[in-house]
Write a structure and sequence with these properties.
This is Cupin-like protein. With about 350 residues, the protein is an alpha+beta fold. It has two domains: about 20-265, Cupin (Jelly Rolls, Sandwich); about 275-345, no CATH class. It contains ten helices and 14 strands. It has helices at about 30-35, 50-55, 60-70, 105-115, 130-135, 140, 225-230, 275-285, 295-310, 330-345, and strands at about 20-25, 40-45, 75-80, 90, 100-105, 125-130, 155-160, 160-165, 170-180, 180-185, 235, 240-245, 250-255, 260-265. The protein has a nine-stranded mixed beta sheet. Strands 4-8-13-10-11 form a five-stranded mixed beta sheet, with no helix packed on it. The radius of gyration is 22 Å and the shape is globular. The termini are far apart.
Length: about 350
Amino acid sequence: MRWFGVNNSNSNMIAISRTVPELRPSSPEHIPELLRQHNTPLVMRGLIKHWPAVQRSASVTEACAYLRQFYQDSTVTVFRADASQKGRYFYNENLSGFNYAQSRERLDSLLDELQQASNTDAPGIYVGSTTIERCLPGFLAHNPLDFGQPEALASIWLGNQSRIAAHYDVPDNLACVVAGTRRFTLFPPEQIANLYIGPLDLTPAGQAISLVDFHHPDEERFPKFKYALEQAMTATLAPGDALFIPSMWWHHVEGLDAFNVLVNYWWRNTPAWMGPPINALLHAMLAIRELPAAQRDAWRAQFEHYVFADQSAQHQHIPESARGVLQALDDNSARQLRSQLLNRLNR
């Protein structure tokens, strides 16, 4: 069934009226303060328009030639999909596998192929999340962006037309469009229940994804998706534009042109000793999810008390010297807590 509100004039994409707030920062030095002020998405128009890579992006031939000058023989992971998939990288029909093939290939050969596959009916070619310094050493030095996160991981994504299902990332994300046009559809983290998330243990790229086809939503199969749409925002980015995607925000990403390049930066403003939150989620599924309802409610109260409540006032009744792991964690106490956890898991 086709969903109400489908915008037939725009690649069958669902019509969403809310757009991501945007501004034009006067210089990259202002970005750290902007990001501190925002915990919601933000478009920064023209942020990287000065990059040589962006200035060469109007021509596919020139853009590919510019990338080739940094290439030094490494291979990249490539997803290939039949033209019938229309750029959607997804599961197969019974969710036992995927609708694309995956391989390791030379980047220069792929650039040659993308130059020749200039029509929108070509088979899908997609290179996702490849560390720039490994595959294109020197690119970042020639296309710098100092935005206050020197440890950010910079990755490149390129290919022809693509549709990547809604997913979240744990790190904060600054996505910068180098070539082509990108459309993002974003949802707050709490919309997880309305996005119909797929398996946790078989995923296209490590993160669970929404099973809703945003071009052809099925109202009968996904009836609560309409509530997610009420909270959705969209952003369409041209070369030189950037989008800040906060941690845990769901985002559906489309490369709209026959040649698309995006550079993104991931970072976490958390101490290095903190473990991945997904580990706690998986262990909670193992230890709590199948308990009787009354016990689950009791553990919900425990988590609220020890994890989610304001800890600064939660344990004032205990002498500071006796608080142990209830104190604010640091590298040393985190190491002790991890040791306790490992001992318990190994019993």
